[in-house]
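Researcher: Good morning. I'm working through a list of sequences from a screen, and I'd like to move beyond sequence-only analysis. For each chain I'm collecting a predicted structure so we can compare shapes side by side. This is the next one on the list. No need for commentary yet; just the structure.
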Amino acid sequence: MNIGIVCYPTFGGSGAVATELGKALAEQGHRVHFISYNLPFKLNHFNENIIYHEVEWYEYPLFEYQPYESALTSKIVDVALYETLDLLHVHYAIPHASAAYMAKQILLSKKIKLPYITTLHGTDITLVGKDPSFEPVIRFSLNNSDAITSVSKTLKKETLNIFKIDNNIEVIHNFIDFEKIQQIRKEARCCISNKSKNEKILMHISNFRRVKRIDDVVKIFALVRKKIKSKLVLIGDGPEKPHIERLVRALKLQNDVIFTGRIVEPIEILSSADLFLLPSETESFGLAALEAMAVGVPVISTNAGGITEVNIHDKTGYVCNVGDIKNMAKLSIDLLSDEKKLMQFKQNALIQAKKFDVKNILPKYLTLYKKLIDNSKL
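Model: Good morning. Structure tokens for this chain:
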């Protein structure tokens, strides 16, 4: 198959999943064309079956904001024509789904059929998508997608509640390469060189946006630290980071909190963790939690969104109400204090994570691709 993938190149779940999907497809011999305004951050190894097409648009004094959607549409048409795409898969609805629809109509005028799939990742529906200025366009482009997939059952339900979608939505969960992660895990060293024997390591990974509630992470850690000797490692960067740095200093935690900045492949550092904290206001899936579980790290998370489809309460970790810092801290302390239970939760996390291995998820996409390509030839 000859597949076009449209995604955001920046750090975040949608871009990571789109890139890993393309890499997995390329490994199986399919030709994959990434279309974006910059090289996706996870596209860091050469593969002859992967081609990157940069969307370029030009500054003009008339435009206060550059018309990216139009430039993207033109690039999709160009790639489809000259690379003879069989299918287009767009990740994140805004503005990729509407650009895909416009490209499809342009290509139809040239008697070329290009089916497109829209994969919903979360904030494109639950946050940005709720804005009245986007709603009609999102609803139209989703209803005209040849297929829609959602990364969780919860996100599917939310989409159907927010929008009048007549189209079917198929749930295909996010995934990880379990075998690759185990290899990295075996070779990983502790990320803190001066860690004492009984010291525990708590971790959090995100794009440091308000919805992630990273201030809750710090406050949970402050309570845990009073009872258990521990350090907190914060991986990532984003708009909330300056505020979090000030909070850490205000609580006098700076000697025990480590900011790593962005890390493209966080698996090695995750392998050092004893507990992963994800107190988000909402999570469409919780890919960072899944990556932590894949190296045997239990998760303390909220019960908001699709995270409960990944993190199983009282088995792979615990889930709590949003903002319930005291309970999250208590459960963290209880688990870290009980070595036998901690080891059992670590084993449970590994077993649960394996269910989301790429070997189990990729065939679902391939079946959908083949169905749409066959239908476009009728």
